[in-house]
Amino acid sequence: MQDIDPMNFKDMAKLKDVNEADALLHNIKNSANDSDGKNDIKSEYQSLKEVEELKRLVEKQSFIIHAFWIMLKDKGATNEEFDKALNEAVLLGRRTDYKNIKICPSCGKGLQSMENKPFTAKCLYCGVEILNNPYKKYDGLDPYKVEYKPEPEEPEPYISDDEADEKEFREAADVISQSFEPYDVTKDLNFDDET
Q1: Structural domain boundaries of the chain?
Q2: DSSP string, 77-98
Q3: What are the φ and ψ backbone dihedral angles of 131, each rounded to 5 degrees?
Q4: Global confidence as pTM
């Protein structure tokens, strides 16, 4: 990063929102002569702008979720039911024993998730697009049931190198002692039939 005027650092420390960042960026852009320094400052302010946008988006989603709860209460849902459902959602969110749809139901090939379409997977082979309900993977799971964790396998008892070599030698001797019939390729290729 190029040297930046210390006065700009003081101005940056006083910023309170994105609009002030845009104004300062505009002033720096007009007064600075080196383009490298401008790009560094621009990227810092762009990040600040993106964080502000994300904060606004989260705030909007918080209001939407609250509105859904108000609507559910108007339809007769109780706080106890909400508490139970919230607890189940937290418990299910910690589960790892669910199955995601990864195979195309049309052709059986693997599905590819799409970045520009949330909750959508597409088959690159046959073109089928599937909209996946993000909560469907929890259907049929009991949130209060502890997920199955296999017991760790007991390690095999210690065998010295000499014992291991002897065991390997015995297994090899058993294999060698069996009689093998050599494989005859001519029977497979039916050379006798072409006469």
Answers
A1: 1-77, 99-164
A2: --HHHHHHHHHHHHHHHT----
A3: -90, 115
A4: 0.44
